[in-house]
Amino acid sequence: MNLKNLFQDFNPSKFLVFSCLLVFSLLFALRLDHTIEWSYWVVFLPIWLWKLVVISGSVVGSYVWWKNPHYRLEGDSYVQYKAMVMCTGMHLLLLMFEVLACDNLQTAAHSWLLVFIPLIFMALVSVGICIWAVKNERSFEMELFCAVNILQFIFLGLRLDMVITWSWVIVFIPIWIVMCVALIGVLYAIVLAIILLKSPDIIPEQRRGNVSSAVGYSFLVVPLLIFEILLANRLDHTNGFKFTAITIPLLLSLITLVCLSFGAKGGNNWWFGIRKDFCQFLLGTCPCLQEYGNISYSLQYNDSESGSSTPVCEKAKEFKSRKEPIDEQPKAVVPILSIETPD
Question: Which InterPro entries does the record cross-reference, listed alphabetically (predicted)?
Answer without folding.
Answer: TM_Fragile-X-F-assoc
